[in-house]
Amino acid sequence: MPPLRGTGSHPEAEHPEYAGQYRLEACLGAGGMGVVHLARSASGLQLAVKVVHRQYAADPEFRARFRQEVAAARRVSGAFTAPVVDADPTAALPWMATLYVPGPTLSAQVKRNGPMSPAELRRLTAGLAEALRDIHRAGVIHRDLKPSNVLLPDSGPKVIDFGISRPYDSDLRTETGKLIGSPPYMAPEQFQRPREVGPAADVFALGAVLVHAATGRGPFDSDSPYLVAYQVVHDEADLAGVPADLAPLVGRCLAKDPQERPTPDEIMDALHPPSYEASAFIPVQRRPLAAESGSGAADEGTTHVRAADGLSPGPGMPKGRRTPRRLAVVATAVLLAAGGLWAAGTRDGSVTPKPDGGADAGRAAAFTPWRTPLRSPSGSTPSCAPGSSGTDSGLYCVSTGFGVARLDASDGRVVWSRRDTSPAAVSGAAMSGRPAYTVVVGGELRAYDPGKGTELWHADLSAYADVPAPAGGLLLAVRRNGALQALDAASGDSRWQRTVPGHVSPGYALYEAGTGLAYVYESSARGATTLITAVDARTGDTAWQRRLDGNLAPAGTSDGALLLTAMNEKAQTTELVSYDPQTRSATRVSLPFRMNAPETLVDGDTALLLERGGTLLALDLRPGTGRAERWRLETAVGMTSAPVLGAGGRLYFSAADGRLLAVDTERGTLLGQTRPRLRDGKLSHASSLPAPVVLGRSVIGTAPDGSAFAVDADGPARW
C-alpha cells in the first residue's frame, strides 16, 4: 500500500516515503521523538522503522542520544527484544529498523482487558526477568521499563524502546538537573543520584510494571509526577491486589536500597516451576491454522497419518559445536551415531502418521509431506536422528514417557516401536547394521537393533561423566576418573581406555570422520588457557596436543584446521580461533558483537553462529579478507535448536513453538518457515530443542504437539 500522508496530528505529519532502502507502507504510531512506520525488508520480513521528528534531527545532542539508542538496541538484539535489522543515525532524518513484533503493549492489554490472571502474571514476570538478564549481560541499562515499552506477542514479552538506555561503558552521561525516565516506574536512585543508576533500577521498574499488570495501577499513584517522585523515594509500595504468592517477590524488587533488590536470575529462580502457557498473551481469537503459516501459505502439506497404540509402524548433521553435557542432563542428550556427533535435544512424544495440509498439487507426486504424532503424557518434543547410509532409510525418534520408534523417512510410517514410560528417555541414531540408542535418566544406555527394534545390550553409565558420543563404529565417553573410554557400538564391549596426557577432567567435543580423530579439551582454572588434544579414535593414541590462550571449545573442522570458539569471563562468545596442527599456528577472528552460547557450524570458509535468541551470524574464516562479518540475520525466534546444513546452501533450525525455519546461507535471508505447532495451545518449558534432520529432499522437524513432520527442502517458501 502507498505510504500514508498527512493523516496524523503528530509533528511529523508529512511522512517520508523511504528510510534508507525501506519503503514506508503505513504509520504504526508516533511518540515524542519520532514516528514508527511499517515497512518490509527485501526478503519480505515486516519491519518497524522509527524515523526521528524533523525538529530533533538538527539537534546534535539528540543525534548523540539516538546513536546511543541504536547502539544499545543492537547490543541487546535477541529473544526478548525487537531485533535491530538496520539503522542510519547520520541520515537527514535519522532512522532505525527493527523486526515488527505483532502484539499489543502491556499498557494497552491491561487497559482493554483489565488486570492479568495469576498465571499470566507469572509468565510475564519470568519473561521480563529473562529479558532484563540478557539486556544487562549485554552491558546495557534500560532505564525506562514501563508498560508501554513491553510488547505482548504470542511468543512472550518483548522489551522495546532503548531511547534513554545507557551502556555501562557509555561516555554519554545524564546532565545535572535533567530528569530522564517515567516517574511511576523510576527507582529512587534515578531521582536522587541519576549518575549512579545501575541494573538494579531496571529491577525496581520491573516491580512497578508487575503491580500495574496485576492491578491496573502503579505501586505509587498520583496525578502529580512530583508527588509520585516523593512516594517512590519515601513511601512504601502499595501491593494491594498483587497475588499473594508473588507479592513478596514484587516487594523485594521495589526495595528502596538497590542492594536489597533481587537480580533477574534470582527472580527466575524464585518462580520455579515456571508457567509457560502460550495462550497467556494472545489478545484476540487465533486465526485458522491455514492463515498462520509464516510465509502466508496454508500448511506444509499433508498426506497421511497411520495410527498405532503408542507407536505405529513407520541427514546428516553437519559438524558443529556440541557442548558436552553431564549425566545430570542425560535426559536431553541425543546420540547421533550416523554423523559421529551428538547434540542436545528435548523429550516428548502417540502415534498416527496423518495428513498435514495441501501441498502444491503440481508437486504432490514428486514430494509428499507427512506428519506422525508421537505424543506422550509428558507433553515433550520428540527427538529424531537418521540412519547413516543409503541403505538405511530409517529415522529413529524418541519421546519421553513414550518410547523409541523407527519411522520410514519417506512417508512417516512407523516401522517398529518400543514403549518406554521412564520419566525421561531420549534417543540416538543408527549406523547401517549398528544399534539405535536411548539414554534413560538414572544413567542407563540401551541399544536396539535398527531392523527389528529388539534390545541388543544395555550399559550402566554411572561411572561416566559424559553421555557416550558416536565416533565411527565406537562410542566415546569420559569416565568420572578423567579417562577416555571407547565402547564397541555393536556390542557395548570396551575397546580401550586411556588417560589422556595432561588432562585431569577433559570434556569430549567432537569426532571428525574424515581423519578418525576425536577432540577433547580442558580449560585452566581461570579460563586463561585451554589444552586441546586430538585422539585417534581407533586406538586411543594421542595424535597431537596444544595449549592455546583463552577459554576455548572445539566447534568444528575446516580444511585440516580445528575451529574453536573463545569465551569471555561472562561466558559470551567473543571470537573464533582456527588452529592448524600442521603449522602449529592459530588465527583469531573477532566477532562484531558478543554472543550468548551460539551453536557454531563450519561451512567451507564460512562459520555460521546461531544464538538461542535467534541471531544468526556468518563470518569469513579466510585470513586477510578484511571485514570478517559476511552478514547477520535477526530471525526473531525466542529460542532455537542447533542448526543443520542441507543442500543448496540452506540452513535449517527449529523454534520452541514448533516452527521449522530455512535460511539462505549465501545471502543471509529467511527462505521460509512452517506454522507453529503447540501442544493444546501451550508452550512447554525446555532447556534445549531437538535439531531438525535433513534426509535427501526431506527436512524433518519435531514439535511440542508431539509430532515429527517432513517438508520439501526444495520449497521452503511454500512451507
UniProtKB/TrEMBL annotation:
* Top-level lineage group: Bacteria
Return the SMART domains for the record: PQQ, S_TKc
Residue ranges of domain Protein kinase in the record: 22-275
Which positions are annotated as binding ATP? K50
The UniProt entry, under SUPFAM superfamilies, shows: Protein kinase-like (PK-like), Quinoprotein alcohol dehydrogenase-like
Give positions of region: Disordered: 290-322, 370-391
Ranges of compositional bias, category Polar residues? 375-391
- UniProt lists compositionally biased (Low complexity) regions at 290-300
Task: Read off the InterPro entries from this record.
Answer: Kinase-like_dom_sf, PQQ_b-propeller_rpt, PQQ_rpt_dom, Prot_kinase_dom, Protein_kinase_ATP_BS, Quinoprotein_ADH-like_sf, Ser/Thr_kinase_AS, WD40/YVTN_repeat-like_dom_sf
Q: What is this protein called?
A: PQQ-binding-like beta-propeller repeat protein
The species this protein was found in: Streptomyces mutomycini
